[in-house]
Write a structure and sequence with these properties.
heterodimer; A: alpha/beta; Rossmann fold; 2 domains; six-stranded parallel beta sheet; six-stranded mixed beta sheet; 14 strands; disordered N terminus; B: mainly alpha; two-stranded antiparallel ribbon; 17 helices; about 75% helix; globular
Chain lengths: ~375, ~425
């Protein structure tokens, strides 16, 4: 939090000086410093330092960096551990940041994203007594590295089924920021979920923006440009799609803009948000969020930290699934009354079938269990 | 940007007759040159003052975003000492951390830990020096080379491909990979130089566009199995073979590699080229006044092409420092922001190879120190970027301000604004 506060503060700092002067007349507090409060922390937690290194997205990316960071901050609050964070501006910062963390006495360092894989592996090999966890990457096989990965396709499959059940035009759409596995796994699950619905119901709902067989589709090319997200969404809507799932971090906000305008002009277009529950996290337009494909990154990072504090660290990958709640389909919120009980029942049954393995959800990007 | 900048190529390319536009160009070239010359070759004191002022601005930002300072500020008038102490603490902590993470760690337990920060500084400075030289060389010929970023990417892509695909004996592999990097950068720079020399296409526009092409070309390559790791569809290449990597200078615990020594060699080469060779003399003459140079029988187009090829080759070497030195595998962010930082480095180094060396070292130190500052005091590394940007601003501002002032006193010339825009883009 401190980091984020600083950032906003930095922008306002110069303007704020005058305000500071005006408010500078208050009374001085007592000189005794108050002790640090750390509730029911396990023994040794205050000696434990948990650290995090972002990839070039930074901790304010509204995506996996931010969620993982919030997980670590939650661990700080709940367990009373010390934390350190290092934001990477580019790939060149990864190794220096990791080294700074290791030298800074971190017991557990969380690295975010497959781009940090090589550097994490190197740092782990050079420091066998330190623990590492890496989010969204399963390429490292080392005793002191715990991969944290998600079988997102399972939850996206449910979202696809839901979208197919809710569409009035017979067309649903999705697009991504970049064609990388952590993005395309959403799109695979979504498209497969629609296909499964078609098979069960003998319907012909079309998916725009993603072709599972070819592994190609519509991408905005980055995770920044909301304008492209808006254009893409309008194009999809013009082609007749009425449920759209953007898998592009902040670019998805462009979809929200477009959907607000489309609904104002009489179209009925809904959104399926990703990563977090969009109904809760979006500032506006949440009445158009049908549901969300949730990836509980903050929770899993906190869990990994907690188990390390308790001395129970292991290197078995944590795989978020529907079964363990690491991935989930969010509640329907405003749409709760519009989703038929029949469809809800089918979704519940489908979720049970995926958990039991009766329905297999597979994507080329699914985590491979070793 | 403006007609001014476009003019030299159009006039001087291959037309043997003195063009009718000559008087206008005389008009225009003079002031523009003096502006560029001032920014590029202003005196050393300006650079030092700019660095100092930027650190002061950085200190102010650090102080007023620190929680201790803001909390003590509310009762400043009843007990001012609290706030002053807080300011001193936050700023001194930050800059001590910056120093200890970039030069020498005075609180380190062992000698190797103590000098580790210095080797980090040299490591990060290596690509900055290479790319800075490329930008500086083009500046001296009167070209705003904004394309170092793309040239680094191309260099890194080719060098990386050689590094992880070919299987060559130790020694030869490294040489071939480095040559591939040089060629990659030289081609990318050469395209801009060629278009400038033959068609008068403005190098700023062309190099910026080539940057985009390079980024998306790299991302496309990384989406093909030929570049991806077997069994993975992540946009990340295999690491280059050990035989293609720059050997480490001080063993495994330091990242410093022999690419740094190569960078020192590049500084010497560029210095020799500019100051001791006929080609360099011609280049400087073109940079000083393309019209006069042409009249004196210098082939202006050739100077543009050659300087951009060499500038690209130097930036390509920066790419090899990345891929064969520190990063080892190709990803979308292989060039970081070094291509743009290089412009700042060249500005701060006053387009002089030796100056560029020191500017590169300073920026390496700021980057290395910023990492430690962030890790140890929680101050975001953005502060370092702000300091870097202010350095450019302070260096560029005095001549800009003066030239803007002169617009008021003498005849209005639209060109000034254009040049300013170009410089602004560079910063």
């Amino acid at each position: 939090m401190r980091n984020i506060k600083r950032k906003t503060g930095m922008a306002a700092a110069m303007l704020g000086i005058s305000a500071l002067v005006l408010t500078a007349c208050g009374a001085a507090p007592e000189a005794t410093p108050s002790g640090s409060a750390s509730g029911s922390a396990p023994a040794g937690a205050s000696d434990f330092t948990g650290c995090i290194v972002s990839d070039s997205g930074g901790f304010d990316d509204r995506s996996f960096n931010q969620s993982s960071y919030e997980g670590l901050m939650a661990a700080k609050k709940d367990l009373g551990i010390n934390v350190k964070q290092a934001e990477s501006k580019a790939a060149t910062d990864f190794a220096p940041n990791l080294n700074a963390m290791v030298k800074g006495g971190c017991n557990l360092t969380v690295t975010v994203g497959f781009l940090l894989s090589d550097d994490t592996k190197k740092a782990a090999a050079a420091n066998p007594d330190k623990h590492f966890a890496i989010v969204d990457d399963n390429a490292i096989d080392a005793k002191n590295v715990k991969p944290i990965i998600y079988d997102t396709a399972q939850a996206a499959f449910l979202a696809g089924y839901l979208a197919a059940g809710m569409t009035e035009t017979g067309k649903v759409a999705t697009y991504g920021g970049m064609n990388i596995p952590t993005v395309s796994i959403f799109m695979d699950g979504y498209a497969d979920g629609v296909a499964y619905y078609n098979e069960k119901k003998s319907k012909d709902v079309k998916v725009l923006g993603w072709d599972v067989a070819k592994q190609s589709g519509t991408f905005t090319g980055d995770f920044d440009n909301q304008g492209k997200g808006k254009n893409t969404t309008v194009t999809f809507a013009n082609e007749g799609a009425d449920v759209i799932m953007p898998v592009a971090g902040p670019v998805g906000l462009g979809t929200m803009d477009a959907v607000k305008e489309l609904n104002a002009s009489g179209k009925n277009v809904k959104v399926i948000w990703v990563d977090a529950d969009g109904f809760e996290s979006l500032a506006s337009g949440n009445q158009f969020v049908l549901s969300s494909v949730v990836k509980e990154m903050g929770q899993s990072v906190e869990d990994v930290v907690r188990s390390d504090v308790e001395g129970k660290f292991d290197s078995t990958p944590y795989v978020g699934t529907l079964e363990n709640g690491g991935v989930a389909l969010a509640p329907f919120h405003d749409f709760d009354s519009k989703v038929s009980d029949e469809l809800k029942g089918e979704l519940d049954a489908l979720e049970a079938d995926i958990i039991s393995g009766a329905v297999k959800v597979e994507s080329p990007s699914s985590p491979k269990t070793k | 940007m403006s007609n001014t900048a476009d003019m030299p190529p159009a006039e001087h390319s291959q037309t043997p007759v003195i063009p009718p536009v000559a008087p206008t160009s005389q008009h225009h070239d003079e002031p523009e040159k003096s502006l560029i010359t001032k920014i590029m070759t202003g005196n050393g004191l300006v650079s030092v003052l700019a660095i100092f002022l930027s650190l002061v601005v950085g200190a102010i930002l650090i102080a007023f975003t620190d929680e201790r300072v803001t909390s003590t500020a509310s009762y400043f008038f009843s007990r001012p000492a609290d706030m002053l102490t807080a300011i001193w603490d936050s700023v001194s902590e930050a800059y001590i951390a910056l120093f200890q993470s970039s030069i020498i760690n005075t609180s380190a337990a062992s000698f190797s830990d103590a000098i580790y920060p210095l080797t980090e500084t040299l490591t990060i400075a290596t690509p900055l020096i290479f790319a800075g030289l490329g930008v500086a060389l083009a500046f001296r010929v009167g070209l705003f080379n904004i394309g170092a970023q793309g040239q680094i990417i191309l260099g890194a892509t080719l060098a990386g491909w050689v590094g992880f695909t070919l299987d060559l004996p130790v020694g030869i592999h490294l040489i071939v990979a480095v040559l591939a990097g040089i060629i990659g950068g030289a081609i990318w720079g050469g395209i801009a130089g060629f278009l400038k020399a033959r068609r008068g296409a403005h190098e700023v526009i062309v190099t910026i566009m080539l940057n985009y092409i390079a980024v998306y070309l790299l991302l496309y390559m990384l989406s093909t199995p030929a570049f991806q790791r077997p069994g993975s569809n992540n946009p990340l290449s295999e690491p280059v073979a050990e035989s293609a990597a720059y050997p480490l200078m001080f063993g495994d615990s330091f990242r410093l590699h022999w690419g740094f020594v190569l960078a020192l060699g590049a500084v010497a080469f560029t210095w020799w080229l500019l100051n001791r060779s006929t080609t360099g003399f011609e280049m400087r003459a073109v940079g000083a006044n393309p019209v006069a140079a042409k009249t004196a029988g210098i082939n202006v187009g050739r100077a543009y092409l050659l300087s951009m090829v060499i500038a690209g080759a130097l930036a390509g070497l920066a790419g090899t420092a990345q891929i064969l030195g520190t990063e080892r595998s190709l990803s979308g962010g292989i060039a970081a922001s070094f291509g743009f930082d290089a412009i700042t480095v060249a500005l701060l180094g006053r387009s002089n190879p030796i100056g560029t060396l020191f500017a590169g070292l300073l920026f390496g130190a700021l980057r290395a120190g910023g990492v430690g500052m962030q890790a140890n005091t929680g101050i975001p590394i953005d502060i370092v970027l702000v300091v870097q940007s202010f350095i450019v601003l302070f260096i560029a501002a005095p001549p800009l301000v003066r030239s803007i002032f002169r617009i008021g006193t003498s005849k209005p010339k639209n060109k000034k604004t254009a040049t300013k825009a170009a410089t602004g883009g560079a910063a």
